[in-house]
Amino acid sequence: MRRTFLSVLAAAACVALACSGALADPLQAAFTLSINPLDGGHEVGNGQVDRVDFAPLPLADLEVRWRGESVHVEGLPSVTFGYGSNPDGAQSTRLSIINATFRQQLGAGFFAGFGQTIYNQRTDYGNQIGVRYYAGPGVTSFIDGDEIQDSRVTGPRLELGKHWTRGRDSVELVAAVNPTMHGVQYTQVGILGESCIYHVGCRFYEPTFADPEIAAQTDLSLRVGHRLSKHGDLLYGLRYLNYTAHYALPGDPLADRNVGFAPTIAYRLRF
pLDDT digit string (tens) for 173-198? Predict the structure, then answer.
């Protein structure tokens, strides 16, 4: 996933450099690096919530603008974080995100965007001998070994934003939603053979179960910028994320809910 993210950024940068000499109006581009200490909860059902205590998520984004149109690519490279509390046994989660949108200026500082979001997530529950069980269509099995869940979820992203500028200062407000996202969660578990007695002479099986998911997300951000130089801005702000996924099964059981706030500090390079 990290290679995909870097490839997208590189492709956008190449387009900017290739086109800047051919257009009457030069392209404008900005590259931003930010740290976003996420504080929130990761819920997987039955009221069990794993706490995330200010996990310092690094985000990068590249925006290429021409006249009133722009392409905005934002991504989180694959990072792993642990939990402050884990009542359901989760040890860590590895996460990567890509948001890619086309934005159109509407006048008076407003803009609208349309694009795509891709989530990749891997959660390691460690050794869960006799503690948890996997329940799926036609299958219910106690877990007698490691449990790992992998998922990729993707769907369209809609944005509405407003930008204010006054002197060397600026404010940007963006409200984004993914009204419907689809993906598959793959769960790999360790299961003891039926002939085992007190774990003597046992054979472990590690079947993988596939469960379709349907998700939705709300993403709100506010950033205040201050121009430090001709090519550099200091940014700070706050971001709110609410991502909820359900299994595509009768009753829509909860698969995953991530809700949290992240203060943001960033540096933006204009070129």
Answer: 999 999 999 999 998 877 765 555 55
Residue 101, CA atoms < 13 Å, CB-side half-sphere:
24
Q: Record the pTM.
A: 0.80
Spell out where 8-109 has E strands. 28-43, 49-66, 69-82, 92-107
∠ CA 265-270-271, nearest 5°, is 155
Tokens coding 249: 């099964």
Angle at 97 between CA 42 and CA 74, to 5 degrees: 130
SS in 3 state form for 198-255?
A: CCECCCEECCEEEEEEEEEEEEEEEEEEEECCCCEEEEEEEEEEEEEEEECCCCCCEE
- Domains of the chain, CATH where assigned: 2-122+154-183+214-270 (2.40.128.90)
52, burial (CB in 10 Å: exposed 0-12, middle 13-18, buried 19+): buried
Measured distance CA(79)–CA(212) in Å, rounded: 24
How many CB atoms lie under 10 A from the CB of residue 229?
A: 8
- Please tell me whether residue 5 adopts helix, strand or coil conformation: helix
Residues composing the chain? 271
> What residues pair up with 182 in beta bridges, in sequence order?
154, 214
**What is the chain's mean pLDDT, rounded?**
84
Rounded CA separation 31/8 (Å): 13
> Are residues 76 and 59 in contact, defined by beta-carbon separation less than 8 angstroms?
yes
pLDDT digits (tens, 9 = 90+) for 99-150: 999 999 999 999 999 999 999 999 888 776 666 767 666 666 677 777 888 9
Helix (H, G, I), strand (E, B) or coil at 259: strand
Query: Could you give the CA distance from residue 39 to residue 157 in angstroms, rounded to a whole number?
Result: 23
Across the strands, what pairs with 103? 70, 113
pLDDT tens for 29-66 read 999 999 999 999 877 766 677 788 888 899 999 999 99
